[in-house]
Amino acid sequence: MIYYFSGTGNSKWVAETIAEKTxxxxxxxxxxxxxxxxxxxxxxSRIGIVFPVxxxxxxxxxxxxxxxxxxxxxxxxxxxxxxxxxxxxxxxxLKKRIRLCGGYSVKMPDNYIPAFDVDDAQTALEKVxxxxxxxxxxxxxxxxxxxxxxxxxxxxxxxxxxxxxxLFNKYALSSKPFYTEPSCDGCKLCERSCPTENITVVDGMPxxxxxxVQCLACxxxxxxxxxxxxxxxxxxxxxxxxxTEEEINCKKGR
Length: 254
Fold this sequence. Notes:
Elements: E1 2-4, H1 10-22, E2 26-28, H2 29-35, E3 39-41, E4 46-52, H3 60-66, E5 69-71, E6 76-83, H4 90-95, E7 102-107, H5 121-143, E8 148-150, H6 157-171, E9 178-180, H7 189-193, E10 199-202, E11 205-208, H8 217-221, E12 227-229, H9 245-249
Parallel strand pairs: 1-2, 1-4, 3-5, 4-6, 6-7, 7-8
Antiparallel strand pairs: 9-12, 10-11
């Protein structure tokens, strides 16, 4: 089984790719959280956890999901973290909470536009192509249940995963900076896209609750680019994973 959390589609694609190459089933972490039941993992199980890194740490839904796991010794547990650049100590933090047999980082297109712009189209595509090649290696490890860790901590990993993450969780999770421009047509795609069901569209206008985890699916999926967050997102691009297999595999292996 592969449990995954995704906002703009990067981790969803990674999870789907792993599922295709390993034959394992997929389940959204948010669906598991809705059920709220303890998940027993027996010693013969193989479990993957795929998620994006938020401020060099675990997204809140992933941290909550980990609490549901009841893992027998001997189970093969691995994690694959997607990131725009590096993951800091995310894998190390996860290893302190559950026994991991494998941990990986996969670099994918940037999408946190409150802080910086998205990658240009060519850079994004090259990241995905490189990710596809790395996933071939990762899936080989998974199929042989190999114990291996291959992730990029980056510089100042502890500072980022603790200090920066603390500040992110304290100050950046507010829904107050969200607003819509007049071009919003009330299509409700933001409501349907929100993994935490934090958005409600009333009389054609979206309203955000207090469960935002900063996945930014609402901003990036809006077909009118009408959703903004604070002062800086208006002039920045949008990104949602929509690469075709033909695009990804065009230069793969060269």
